[in-house]
């Protein structure tokens, strides 16, 4: 029994998968997060949550409800979250989650980077308030050279 529970938790911990770990966007633009989940979670509540630490994030909205600039759509296979009219204050870490009654919620995260205007590659592009430069930020810095054209096509396809 103990082994079964352990195995289940290991497998189910992959049940919610965010499409991208870092999303780069621009002020006033719209960004989408697509979280794919295992089919048997179709009828569970899903949510969008903000914060670096998964256990302390602040839930912004539960399905099926959308709030203001944040629209949630549950297709039965994916939770699609769309945040419109981005501001720099929207930058940060976000989680999509599946509410589960007898187990830890299943969650996956993305980091949203919001830039002032298209084509900006200045030093404040990467500044993060109150935090030192982490390994993931360095990785992101390395990836930045390739990221900008992708953002255009991502936003174009979500329209
Ligand atoms: C969605 O909004 C309605 C109306 O405000 C509310 O009654 C309901 O509890 C909300 N559902 C969730 C899952 O938060």
Automatic annotation (TrEMBL):
<dbReference type="InterPro" id="IPR050671">
    <property type="entry name" value="CD300_family_receptors"/>
</dbReference>
<dbReference type="InterPro" id="IPR036179">
    <property type="entry name" value="Ig-like_dom_sf"/>
</dbReference>
<dbReference type="GO" id="GO:0004888">
    <property type="term" value="F:transmembrane signaling receptor activity"/>
</dbReference>
<protein>
    <submittedName>
        <fullName>CMRF35-like molecule 9</fullName>
    </submittedName>
</protein>
<dbReference type="InterPro" id="IPR013783">
    <property type="entry name" value="Ig-like_fold"/>
</dbReference>
<dbReference type="GO" id="GO:0005886">
    <property type="term" value="C:plasma membrane"/>
</dbReference>
<keyword id="KW-0732">Signal</keyword>
<keyword id="KW-0812">Transmembrane</keyword>
<keyword id="KW-0472">Membrane</keyword>
<feature type="signal peptide">
    <location>
        <begin position="1"/>
        <end position="15"/>
    </location>
</feature>
């Amino acid at each position: 029994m103990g082994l079964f529970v352990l195995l289940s938790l290991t497998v189910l911990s992959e049940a919610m998968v965010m499409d991208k770990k870092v999303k780069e966007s621009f002020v006033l633009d719209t960004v989408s997060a697509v979280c794919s989940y295992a089919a048997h979670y179709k009828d569970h509540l899903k949510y969008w949550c903000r914060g670096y630490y998964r256990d302390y994030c602040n839930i912004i909205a539960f399905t099926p409800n959308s709030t203001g600039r944040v629209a949630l759509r549950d297709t039965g296979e994916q939770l699609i979250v769309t945040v419109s009219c981005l501001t720099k204050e929207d930058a940060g870490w976000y989680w999509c989650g599946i509410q589960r009654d007898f187990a830890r919620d299943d969650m996956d995260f993305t980091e949203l980077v919001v830039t002032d205007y298209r084509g900006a590659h200045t030093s404040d592009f990467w500044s993060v308030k109150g935090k030192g430069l982490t390994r993931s930020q360095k990785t992101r810095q390395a990836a930045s050279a390739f990221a900008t054209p992708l953002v255009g096509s991502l936003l174009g396809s979500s329209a």
